Amino acid sequence: MTTIAAFYWKPEKNKCSISYMLLDDQLNVIEKPKHIELNTNKKTTSSLSECLKKFLRMVKQKDQSKNILVEYKTVMENSPKANPREDSVYINSELDKLIKREGYKGHRLRSMLKNKDQELRLFKKSLRKLKKLTSKDEAYVWKLWNIALHANKASWQKAIENLWKKHEGIKRMTKQNKTEFNEFIRQVKKT
């Protein structure tokens, strides 16, 4: 059994935030999504490192097997024209180093669904229909699902299909299952 740890780092002007959740290999939530804000005025590389170590200790407590996959996305800058922030570059290298030291597998997501994308709207509606997201959930929750499922503009539907199969307990898709999934997507697109 593999435990999936989804991790998201987002820097902002005066603060940074870390969000995470844990899933089992059936994509059931083990640790509910959490969001931690760090004050960047008091931030040092040692406090960032300690925060990452705390995250990985929590992961280790939930799964002793070391069969852990850390899926993560780090936002490198505040705006498209800005240079990468030093703390973001540090987070990437420190997280990579800690993942290797613990013997976990790690994968950094390069791109996510964006707010202007129609696919994001459909991805969120699909998550709500599968009861993985509520309308009251904050943005970081869908971002964590986005990271855990590797959803992007081209692959969001395949990511939702994978989640739907796990939700329905399907190991291998039959014609009937494919028809049911297509109906699920049709309903998502219709509403």
**Rounded average pLDDT:** 86
Kindly report how far apart the N and C termini lie: 36 Å
Q: Major sheet, described briefly?
A: 5 strands, mixed
Estimate what percentage of residues fall within beta strands: 15-25%
Number of domains: 2
- Name of the CATH first level of the largest domain: Alpha Beta
Structure description:
- This protein is of the alpha/beta class and 191 residues long.
- The protein has 2 domains: 1-108, Nucleotidyltransferase, domain 5 (2-Layer Sandwich), CATH 3.30.420; 116-191, no CATH class.
- Helix content is 46%, strand content 21%.
- The protein has a 5-stranded mixed sheet, with helices on both faces.
- Strand 1 and strand 2 (15-23) form a beta hairpin.
- The longest helix has 18 residues, at 45-62.
- The termini are far apart.
Q: Which tags fit this structure?
A:
5-stranded mixed beta sheet, single chain, 5 strands, 2 domains, 191 residues, alpha/beta
What's the short story on this structure?
The chain is an alpha/beta fold and 191 residues long. Helices cover 46% and strands 21% of the residues.
